[in-house]
Amino acid sequence: MEETSLKITGANKSFINKITKTISKILTPTKVGINGMLISVKRNSMIKAFEHYNLQEEEKETYEKKYDEAYEAYLEALDKYVMDSIYKKVKNKSASDFEKNALSKYYGVIALKENEYVDYKFRKQQFLIELDNETVKQTGKEKVIEKFNKFYIQKMDWLYKGILKNYSIKLADTTQIYDSTKEWIYIKIFNTLKEYIENILALKLKQDENKENKKYEEIRKDYENYEAFEVGKLDQRDNIEKNMLLLGISRKLFTHSLPLTVAEQCYMKLLKDARCLVQDTKIAAKREKAYNMLMNLIEDYNIKLLSTKVYWENAQQREEFKKFWNQYQEITKLKDINFIEYVKQKEVLFIKDDMKKMEKEKCDYSRLLKYYKRKLVDYGVLREIQGYISKGNYKKIGKKVEVVS
Fold this sequence. Notes:
- This protein has a two-stranded antiparallel ribbon.
- The chain is built from 14 helices and 2 strands.
- Helix 7 packs across helix 9 (236-253).
- Among the domains are: 12-139, no CATH class; 178-308, no CATH class.
- It is mainly α.
């Protein structure tokens, strides 16, 4: 009988495995349901504590402590849901594409823990709240969504500021000269700004539409311009211009988390990329577009950043900018009188200023300098002198450009 039993078990091994897998798939949704109920309870408790904390003026510390405790319990429930439910569903091959992507992102966040603990601390909270936000939206309950949104926007705003502040600290030990070893930090800053503007600022602008006090009206136009870059495939010029808009918006939203010194380094990084793009582009039409983008970037850098700079470490640079700023303001007066002359003089001012700055850079901008000089010759600011004649063969061997005062 023992032998018969073993034979039967062996013969039906695949059948037994199928039953086991089926049972696992049945039990997993039950686990999801239990976790879902637990999360719902913890979420409701946290939202109530959040509302009391925001409404109460007296005993603020007591309400803040209750809110922090409820928030921590809420995060623990979400973390348990990922490990107990999503992980098991992926393992049993019963997970949806959304759940597979969620688990992949979760492990990506966990991987930061060892070497980038501060980033991990903020990113894990961000991931768990975003995951629950999708669940809340799927409920379709307007009151629940409305209450959760208030918490979601405020908390995510705080988390993004913390992430940007962490990146800013990492750049604090560098000089104003672009440091190629910090390339990954610049990429993370721009990616984080992109995430914030697409996920959080969009919600803030939507909320602001229903209020009489248009708090974000001044950045609404920049946001609309940014949205235009989200359509179609972007080339290198588009990406530089998009990041320029991100920095412009960040100067109004993250003055403390992304301080002026860090924003200045980001601008300098974009200027380096834009200069290289102009001098490396071979097709004339594309190079002209890249050049126009560079002119816009130079204006943004000077107007949106340097004009707001109060403290200058280098007194000479401060005086040079004052001279530039006075010239810019004089040229601006022409805008309504003679627009064509205004555009010409402004462009000449930007070219001359950038040529001075490029002389201090370590990069080889020889081709861009040549392109700039050709522009100045076309505008009548520089004069081209034809090359001299050699005594031996009377052949033109070169030419020279000099400044006309």
